[in-house]
């Protein structure tokens, strides 16, 4: 089953830390449970997104490398009250 994102962020060509910053902005516009797909070319984004998800209420159901492009799917979690 392919993941169907609610929004797509094209962060290809952006240097660290811009893919993560842009992803945080995009997630802020989504409702809890919605899925954001991010495409990035920065190799450091692999570690950045892993750390971000570990320290947030969000989930990363999948991530993969296709050639020189990294693809991440992040499901927005509920905001802490």
TrEMBL record:
The UniProt record lists the keyword Transferase: yes
Protein name: Sulfurtransferase TusA family protein
Keywords: Transferase
SUPFAM superfamilies: SirA-like
Keyword presence, Transferase: yes
Pfam families: TusA (PF01206)
Native species: Halomonas saccharevitans
Cross-referenced InterPro entries: TusA-like, TusA-like_sf
Family designation: Belongs to the sulfur carrier protein TusA family.
UPF0033 domain sequence ranges: 9-33
Coiled coil stretches, renumbered: none
One MF annotation (Gene Ontology) recorded for this entry: transferase activity
